[in-house]
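Hi R.,

Here's the input for the iron/sulfur cluster complex you asked about:
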Amino acid sequence: MQKVPTFSKGGVHPGDKKVFSRSQQIERLPLPAELVVSLSQHLGAPAKALKAKGDTVIRGEKIGEASGFISADVHSPVSGTIKEIRKVTLANSVCCDAYIITPDEQQTVEFAEKFDWESQTSASLLSQVKDMGIVGMGGATFPAHVKLSVPKDKSVDALVVNGVECEPYLTADYRIMMEKGEQALLGAMIAAKITDAKRIIIGIEMNKPDCIENLSKIAKENAYPIEIIGLQMKYPQGDEKQLLKATINREIPSGKLPLDVGAVVVNVGTCNAIYEAIVFHKPLFERVISVTGECIANPKNILAPIGTKISDLLAYCGGYSSTPEKLVSGGPMMGFSLFDVDTPMAKGSSGLLALPSKKAARSTACLNCGRCVAACPIGLMPAKLYRNIINGQYEEAMKISLMDCKECGCCSYVCPAHLPLVHTMKTGKKLGRKKK
Ligand code: SF4
Ligand code: SF4
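And here is the predicted structure with iron/sulfur cluster in place:
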């Protein structure tokens, strides 16, 4: 029997907990009374504001312009009036300017299938991906036009699509693969045309057999040149490094990118956004978010405008069924704890989780058990890094590859002493960068 592929080094098996929202079809959120649209929803420099207080905007209009090579345009999710521009703090603790927009009655701008992509050049497709403000929707929010721009001295032969969704609870990508599968496949083909990749491979974990079946059927019926690969369930398989190893058996050396091994990795939600950008001329101003967890009354997968407040998402799901211990933006392994229900969702918001209390686990001293080393998918020594960082030995930590840490949380997940390992890695990386 053929072995189901996965990556080789480290990784963990958290329960998938997708049962809460998995069967919930995507629902469109009724328009909120107010939206908070930030100018920093992507990795890189914040966008430059193009509008002022009192201006009117229409749905899909550009309201923020990319302000550097790594940056992305921002578009209004609604037609309405800009009530004010003020500083807000996002889920990832970034503080930036945001438009407060009051929607009006004129939500008449619609986006429909009307443009052909096959007759367009790669350069034209790439420039539209930039103009529509597309960023990586798996959470990384790297501007898609930068990722798809292949430098002259490099070439790409494989476009690998991340359909893994390995974080527990999240089901937004699952629903996209079930309900918008054809769009996602065509979006992958557009991305392959832009990068000149000859192969398209989609990796999907085996806890989503219906997605594998659905996408395989669509690809077969339409003779799309796409390979769909079922992968073992293992976290963090959605990371580019682990996904390339699992799907095409390529290793990205330390400090290098997928491009250095002839590959580009794109999330399946991003493929769907690329399709809508090119074929509908629709900017990225709304996305599917899973609102789920043990404490949500009616878990759902919601198509919501960017800038929707967490409180509006919670209200649409009937609020809490029991008091949560914590609210998380994103998945439980790599997401951010939320402290304010007025925080707005952004382009990278894949999930909103309301999680119950766990029995308090008190930190003890390191037991030298080595579990963190076995779990680290990068092959680092988390216990040693932890010791270096808490003792202020940043240079020592850098020497043993602290900067290669992906902040995946596998070490914290397995540590029987409950040491705050990933939190310490994040702090150590920040302080280490400053000391450089
Ligand atoms: S958080 Fe960093 S050190 Fe910990 S397992 Fe992940 S990559 Fe390794
Ligand atoms: S898993 Fe925790 S207790 Fe075990 S070696 Fe690593 S840091 Fe120490």
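One thing worth noting: The mean pLDDT is 95.

Cheers,
M.
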